[in-house]
Amino acid sequence: MFVYGLADITIGLLSEVCDDRHSEIIPCLDRNLIYQTRLKLDLSVMEHYERHCPLPEKRYNCLIPPPPGYKVPIKWPKSRDQIWKANIPHTHLATEKSDQNWMVVKGDKVVFPGGGTHFHYGADKYLASMANMLNFPKNSMNNEGNVRTVFDAGCGVASFGGYLLAYDILTMSLAPNDVHENQIQFALERGIPAYLGVLGTKRLPYPSRSFELAHCSRCRIDWLQRNGILLLELDRILRPGGYFAYSSPEAYAQDEEDLRIFRAMSAFVERMCWKIAVKRDQTVIWVKPLTNDCYMQREPGTQPPMCRSDDDPDLVWGVPMEACITPYSNQVHRSKGSALAPWPARLTTPPPRLADLGYSDDMFIKDTELWQRRVEHYWTVFGQNLESDTFRNVMDMKANLGSFAAALTNKEVWVMNVVPEDGPNTLKIVYDRGLLGSVHNWCESYSTYPRTYDLIHAWTVFSDIERRGCSIVDLLLEMDRILRPKGYIIYNDKRSIAEVIKKYLGALHWESVAISDSQLVEQDEDDVVFIIQKKMWLTSESLKDSE
Q: Its membrane topology, per UniProt (predicted)?
């Protein structure tokens, strides 16, 4: 537990700046840590790209510096197509993927033409073609609001997800910290939702039945390995009637090896009860069943097996993947689908899975209304500090039902809704509202690059951390790591902890913007709303470079 009497000592340590070579450090995805600790990992199943966090005594107790010449990021929507080169000074992808139009260096900027490994001529044309293949009305990928959340595996610089935003579709773009190590960093700098992760041995940090569409465009994943366990993980996170769009050489079988792989993959997903929705040119799209009927009609002993009845498909934090099919609940089977309203009505319509948590529709509606009032209060406290484009990437550190994010839907932002792994498993409600998020343990570092969020909302997170006996100082350092210079924190928690945080403001290069009594937002008497801004600061090396 954090000891307040040690505050002065810790403040001195916090004033230290990490070495410039740590400007992009991701503590739980640090390959140098793996080498130093000599972890015995199976590289063939991507264990080296999974989370491995340092012990408390090995953590970086210093501020992560920005790279030389760092500038305040370009604002959305311009950022979708261009960023400052100095902010991510890695241009090897522009050379390596030059034939695929991923990105182009132009002067002091990196420009994104919208290309990808399988859509050199632009994601917009690729998406229109995919919607046409699926006979979606008006060739629109949102299918009249019935496609809202998408998962993109091996996403590159996330142009696929970036162009889906125009259809009111949110995409969880996922890639590991691999040889293309900065692809997720580019995605987030562009203002596109993204997460550092890998289809390896652990379940992805998303609940079952979260996405209407999964996508892989030459994502270099061996889908048949380990009894098809990665396909079965996709099956777990796809909704009833969800699609898997697969654009790859195997899909159009140019040689014997491609043909062999595609035949084996087709036979496997058929046993999973997937059917081919459409196959055209270099893309095949499979569709998942709406009910359990096909599963119940399979011959005894058919592989892959059904999951055990006691397996919880929504338990994901650090849980190994299972090579089995997750059946639907009785409610889904009877409804012949998720029974979710189309977007945007989905955001405020109580979803059926509320009953899994013992929550009523009335509780959901009241929570939505409460957070609408709280967000209005936050914006009042901000006062004249806000412009319409102040925020793009937003994180809610304790999202509960996602109502904070729901209150922001009239703004040009996206929200990473984080649900703590030790609390109620509400992330499925977040996804059922048409929002994105992940499970996380705030005693550890988050799976993202430094300087990726414009606004961090911390509602009762510090009280939770204190109760768990984890370090408040470590949490402050982690928030500083992922917050962009000039970015903001909304602290909504106990006054006593806010007073402690105030002692660290100078060391962290943070400044107080405003403080307000939380009684105005219907909370405990000793809670306060505390608005903090991170200052822009540069190291001596950065200053030399920018002069």
A: Single-pass type II membrane protein
- Cα–Cα dist 202/193, whole Å: 21
Crossing angle between the packed helical segments 461-468 and 472-482, to the nearest 10 degrees: 140
Residue 2 has pLDDT above 90, yes or no: no
Strand order in the sheet with 82-84: 82-84, 109-111, 104-106
Q: Which of 402, 438, 431, 499 is nearest to 150 (CA)?
A: 431
Q: pTM of the full predicted structure?
A: 0.95
If asked whether residues 307 and 395 sit together in one domain, one would say no
* Interval 58-71 mean pLDDT: 91
- How many other C-beta atoms can be found within 10 angstroms of the C-beta atom of residue 452? 23
Distance CA 196, CA 144 (A): 30
Q: Measure CA 482 to chain center.
A: 13
495-508 and 461-468 helices, crossing angle to 10°: 100
Here the CATH number for the domain that contains residue 173 is 3.40.50.150
Residues 6+ apart with CB under 8 A from 211: 149, 150, 151, 172, 237, 238, 239, 242, 431
Q: Which two tokens stand for residue 452?
A: 């990726």
Residue 72 within any structural domain of the chain: no
Tell me whether strands 436-440 and 414-420 are parallel, antiparallel or unpaired: parallel
What is the number of domains present in the chain? 3
Q: What CA–CA distance (Å, rounded) separates 521 from 493?
A: 12
Specify whether the CB–CB gap between 250 and 262 falls below 8 A.
yes
Cite the DSSP H helix spans in 15-158.
31-37, 92-96, 123-133
Q: What confidence score (pLDDT) does residue 177 get?
A: 83
Burial class, 537, CB count within 10 angstroms (exposed 0-12 / middle 13-18 / buried 19+): middle
Domain residues for the domain of 375 are 347-545
The DSSP letter of residue 202 is B
The rounded distance, in Å, linking the Cα atoms of 92 and 94 is 5
Query: What sign has the CA pseudo-torsion 196, 199, 200, 204?
Result: positive
Is 36 exposed, middle or buried, given 0-12, 13-18 or 19+ CB atoms closer than 10 A? exposed
